[in-house]
Amino acid sequence: MKSLKELYRIGVGPSSSHTMAPYAACKEIKSKYGEDCKYVVTLFGSLSDTGKGHGTDEVIKRALGENTEVIFDKTRTELPHPNYMQVVAKTNKGEFTHEIISLGGGAYSLDGNAPIGEEIYHEKNFSEIKEYCLKKGIKICDYAYEREPDIKDYLRLVWKQMKASVKEGLDAKGILPGGLEIERKAGYLHSQISIFHPAEAIENMLVCSYAFAVAEQNAGGGIIVTAPTCGASGVLPACLEYMQNKKKFSDDKIIDALATAGVIGNVIKQNASISGAECGCQAEIGSACSMASAALAALHNMDIEQIEYAAEVAMEHYLGLTCDPINGLVQIPCIERNAVAAMRAINALSLAKFLTQTRKISFDVIVHTMYETGKDMHCSYRETSKAGLAKTYKKA
Ligand code: SF4
Questions:
Q1: Which of 65, 77, 351, 390 might form a disulfide with 385, Cβ 3.0–4.6 angstroms?
Q2: How far is the centre of ligand 1, averaged over its atoms, from the C-alpha of 31 (Å)?
């Protein structure tokens, strides 16, 4: 398993493959040429097919400058990869062409050089990690710090950005881009808490407003943290923001929870998938819910068995969840799904508190089951927008 830096990526939404990677790659190219340069960018394959809806052209212009022409080429079919693009830099010394492949999860290769992440975590699954931690008498977060001594500083940046995304999303107003005419609702939800009385209703409304805030920031092309993906980026920050506000957990405690959730996300990434295109939404929202539930269990000083149960039960009831975003936009059903998963993560925490002793299913079994289910899922339900809601939706 690789660094948690590769799981928690800070970048531009709404899609790790269609905006985050192209933005980062273009920034890297711009750093070679400086300000006095014009660019022509050509998008091919999936970047061309759904790039307009995702706002790929907009983030490219944000990275390279407004003096950039973006071409959507739908004619070329012989491609080195489904997510392929070319950038021509026009300088006073001549023209230079760069090739970019968006590899998924925010990773990219530039001119054939793919970032090859080092394998830092040698344990292959959760049971090996648990065995190691129990033998050494350490917590999951300590295991992460042992393997990545500098990761705490990075997780501080992650937490800072997550909080910023919540705040920016709560403050933002207006219609999300893409043509579905969806109004941002995070601020509205947050403003409604004063009319609710039972504590549970207030809790639900607060958690939902935070999840909507980040998911709407993502849908609007704002900066978010993949947790583990752009589409599911609202679940973990919503749970952590709510619990920190409610119980005054220190930032250090939150960092420990992020490290714990990161290890859970890494186990899923290594042994199954965190990609909706590969295994449906169970791999994105299900994984995010597992990570959030494990983070909450760590925050509440639960032991490793309880953390495992929390992560397992959170994933178990997302098995089979399809990916069917309307018009290829990460909006319906994605935004609401973040809110529902954040509430479910809190429910999973309650079950873990009382039922861990009685459980029959390990986290590794549920991860394997999710992968098998994803492989059996018809391809039209794996981020193609050809089935499910994407097919049946009719604009009123
Ligand atoms: S429906 Fe698809 S695009 Fe939306 S959050 Fe789920 S996996 Fe991501």
A1: 390
A2: 32
Are 102 and 133 contained in the same domain?
no
Share of the chain above pLDDT 90, in %: 78
Q: 98-152: per-residue pLDDT in tens?
A: 999 988 778 899 999 877 678 999 999 999 999 999 999 999 999 999 999 999 9
Report the alpha-carbon distance of residue 326 to residue 336 in Å, rounded. 13
CA of 230, closest atom in ligand 1 = 8
Cβ of 281 closer than 6 Å to ligand 1, yes or no, is yes
Q: How far apart are CA 2 and CA 115, in angstroms?
A: 12
Structure token digits, residue 280: 């449906």
Ligand 1 lined by 341 (C-beta under 6 Å): no
Domain, as residue range, for 379: 126-392
pLDDT score at 257: 98
Atom 1 (ligand 1) nearest CA: 323
Highest mean pLDDT among 91-105, 148-162, 375-389: 148-162
What is the structure's pLDDT at 86?
Answer: 98
Domain count, the chain: 2
For 132, left (φ over 0), alpha (ψ -120 to 50), or beta? alpha
Contact 261, 292 (CB under 8 A): yes
Mutate to test the pocket of ligand 1, among 284, 370, 373 (most ligand atoms within 8 A of CB): 284
